[in-house]
Specification:
Blueprint lengths: L1 H17 L1 H38 L2 E5 L5 H13 L3 E7 L1 H11 L4 H10 L7 E6 L5 H14 L6 E4 L1 H47 L1 H9 L4 H42 L3 H7 L1 H27 L3
Antiparallel strand pairs: 1-3, 1-4, 2-3
Helix pairs in contact: 1-9, 2-7, 2-9, 2-11, 7-11, 9-10, 9-11
């Protein structure tokens, strides 16, 4: 077994170097495919972070009446925090709301004079509610509407701004779902195209050694002994292509990193460096699997052993 394994490995490397032109063609095709695959990974990460930042800025604000009881407001906050769809609930008191309002309009003399003339705080306390997913805001809004309906005679909630922001929330949800679907479709198309191209390249390698394969069959070589070198060549193609794709990505990410940080508040190059170990493993394993699958398909179809 060990002797046969060593012969398969030796034959695989010999075939890789002897068919240098075919090997280079296969590596070139797989490098392009893995480069696009890696670029898609980076783009998917960038879009994911951007959508997450946007999602964190979307929330539901519940405005209480100025006469709302502190215990009732605290009870509603506790109920909201117990909901599985809720990520975070922030409470803003009447004094905090007034202070924030004064800072926002400190340069508007008319508004400031109006506040001084009122003498009392006209603003009520509020809750800022952030859901785990944008699609969950409607359920939270329905829960709040039910709570609002329960206190008609002694109102607690003055206004829920979900319905004012509903169109924006729905659009954001649609964008997130569309990006996720598009990423999956692109990945499937890319993997399929890479397998087909590498499959044809491996088939060319088999064709160039068809006479040697015929001789091995005549002398009684086992099926694994004939298949093994081509499978190993596919793995080598994938490893080399994965390394080359990472080398190609490096300077490009250095160049676009500052731009992504300025526009998206996320430096793509820093992410690439900090998470390089995981990205390296994904790229190399993807290349190996791509070469292995392509080789298996080519060998199964064209060697007929």
């Amino acid at each position: 077994m060990w002797t046969a394994f060593k012969r398969i490995v030796r034959s695989g490397f010999v075939g890789f170097w002897r068919n240098a032109f075919v090997s280079l063609a296969a590596i070139f095709v797989m490098t392009v495919a893995l480069f696009v695959f890696g670029s898609t990974m980076m783009l998917d990460k960038l879009l994911g972070v951007s959508l997450q930042n946007i999602q964190e800025k979307v929330d539901i604000n519940v405005y209480f009446v100025t006469t709302a009881d502190d215990a009732e407001m605290a009870a509603l906050k506790t109920q909201l925090e117990a909901l599985t769809d809720v990520e975070e609930v922030k409470f803003t008191s009447r004094d905090e709301a007034l202070e924030r309002f004064r800072k926002q309009h400190q340069n508007d003399n008319t508004i400031m004079q109006g506040l001084d003339e009122l003498g009392d705080n006209p603003l009520g306390a509020s809750l800022s509610i952030r859901a785990k997913e944008t699609s969950q805001y409607e359920g939270i809004a329905n829960f709040l509407a039910e709570q609002q309906g329960l206190s008609v005679n002694d109102p607690l909630i003055d206004k829920i701004n979900y319905y004012d922001n509903q169109e924006a929330i729905n659009k954001l949800t649609a964008i997130i779902n569309a990006v996720e679907r598009a990423s999956l479709i692109i990945m499937f198309i890319l993997v399929g195209a890479s397998i087909m191209i590498t499959f044809n390249t491996i088939r060319l390698a088999i064709y160039t050694t068809r006479e040697e394969i015929g001789v091995m069959r005549l002398v009684g070589a086992s099926n694994m002994f004939i298949r093994g070198p081509f499978m190993l060549q596919g793995v080598i193609y994938g490893v080399v292509a994965g390394v080359l794709a990472l080398i190609m990505l490096y300077p490009i990410l250095i160049w676009i990193g500052p731009g992504t940080e300025e526009f998206f508040q996320f430096n793509l190059f820093n992410y690439f460096v900090s998470d390089f170990g995981r990205i390296f493993v994904i790229m190399i394993v993807s290349g190996m699997m791509l070469g292995m699958v392509s080789s298996l398909l080519a060998v199964a179809r064209h060697l007929r052993v």
